Amino acid sequence: MENSTFSSPAGGSPPPPLTPPPVIAPPAAPPRKGRGWMIAAIILIVLLAFSLLGNFTQIAVRALGFSQGFQTATARQVGPKLDEGIIEDNGSRNKIAVITVDGIITSHMGNVAGNNMVDVIQAQLDRAADDDHVKAVILKIDSPGGEVMAADEIYKAIADFQTSDPAEHGKPGRKGKPVICSMGSLAASGGYYIAAPCRWIVANELTLTGSIGVIMHGWNYRGLMDKVGVAPMTYKSGKFKDMLSPDRSTNEIPAEEHVLVQALIDETYGKFTNVVGIGRSDAHVLNKKEGRPLADNWADFADGRVVSGKRALEIGFVDQLGDFDDAVKKAESIAHIHGATLIEYRERYDLANFLSMFGQSGQAHDIKLDLGLDIPKLRAGGMYFLWQMPEN
C-alpha cells in the first residue's frame, strides 16, 4: 500500500495544513409575541361591523317603509326591538301572530335588553296592530299568575288591542283584531285574568285554570327578635304608618289595620271578578250561540279554587276544549281567513345589549342556578293574582 502522505516538491516548503470551513450559525430568531390580542381585536372589529350593518339596515327599512306597506309606525324608537319570525309558513299573506305568556307575570324581571314581560307583550301587540296582514292574535298562556299591576296592564293592552280606534286629527283609525286564548297546562289566577278579555278561550280538558282571587303575603318575626334580644325602635307620624311591619308584636297591631288590609284585598278581588264578568259577557255577545256564557253560579267558583278545563267549560270560564291547533282554526274562522301563516315576534339582542352588561355601574350581577323550578318570590306587602302549588 502506498504512503498517503504528501511529499513536498524538491527544494520547496511543505504546504500549509488544511483548515475546515467556518460554521456559520443562523441568526437567532426573535421571540414570538403572543397574538391573542390580535385575535380578540379582529373578533371585536367583526362584531362591530355586523352591528353597524344591522343598524344601517334597520334605518334604511324604517326610512323606506318597505316592511309594512310604506308604514313607519311599526318601528319602535324606544322599548323592545322585535324581529318577525315564521312559525308555520302556509304561503299566505294573511298572518296570525302568536304571543306567549310563560311563567310568572311580572314587571320586575328584566331581561338582557332591560325589558320586562309587560313591555314585551305591549310591543308585540303594537306590532301586530300596525301590520295590516295580521288578522288575529293567539295568546298562549302557561302561567300561575303573578303581580296584580302587571296582570292588569296586560289585560288592558289586550282589551285595547281588540277595540277599534276612530280616525282623528288626520290619522287613520285602527280596526280592532280578535285575540284567541290558548291555555296550556296552567292558566290560573293572573293567568286567567289576562285571558278573560279574549274573544275566544280554548283549554285542554286537563288544564288547571280559575283560581280567581287575591293574596297578600308577609312574615312576622318579632318573636325571633325577642329571643335574641333585639328590640325595634319606630317613630311614625300616624297610627297606620307602619302598617304590615313585620317587627311588631301581634298584640301591637290594631284591629282597624286588619280591616283596612282586608278592604284592600276585597277591592282588588272585586276588580278581578268584574274583569271576568265583563270580559266573558262581551265575548259571548260577539260569539253568540257558539261560545259559552258564564253559568249563573260562576261566582261560587271564584273563591280561589282551581278547576280543570273540562269543569271550566261547564262554568263558562272557557269556550272550547282543545289544543293550540284548535285555537288556530278558531282564529281563522273568526277572522274569516284560511291557511294563515303563523308568526311570532322575537326580541332582538344586539351588541349594544351585550356591552351594556359590562357598563352597568352600581348594580350587582347575580349568578342564578337553574334547577328546573320556577319558584315565585312574593314580596311582603305586595298583592298578587297568583296560584301556588302546595309543596310536598
Briefly summarize what is shown.
By secondary structure, this protein is of the alpha/beta class. It has nine helices and twelve strands.
Radius of gyration, in Å, reads: 35 Å
Instruction: Tell the overall outline.
Output: flat
Structural class of the secondary elements? Answer: alpha/beta
Give me the strand/helix succession.
Answer: HEEHEEHEHEEEHHEHEHEHE
Q: Separation of termini?
A: 109 Å
Instruction: Indicate the CATH class of the domain at 79-166 and 173-216 and 247-356 and 375-386.
Output: Alpha Beta
For the biggest sheet, the summary is: 9 strands, mixed
Low-confidence stretches: 1-6, 64-76, 357-375
Estimated helix fraction: 25-40%
The CATH architecture designation of the domain at 79-166 and 173-216 and 247-356 and 375-386 is: Alpha-Beta Complex
Textual characterization of the structure:
This protein has 392 residues and is of the alpha/beta class. It has a domain at 79-166 and 173-216 and 247-356 and 375-386: 2-enoyl-CoA Hydratase, Chain A, domain 1, CATH 3.90.226. It contains nine helices and twelve strands. Strands 1, 2, 3, 5, 6, 7, 9, 10 and 11 form a nine-stranded mixed sheet that branches. Helix 2 (117-130) links the parallel strand 2 (95-102) and strand 3. Helix 2 (117-130) packs parallel to helix 3 (148-161). The longest helix has 33 residues, at 255-287. Residues 1-6, 64-76 and 357-375 have low confidence and may be disordered.
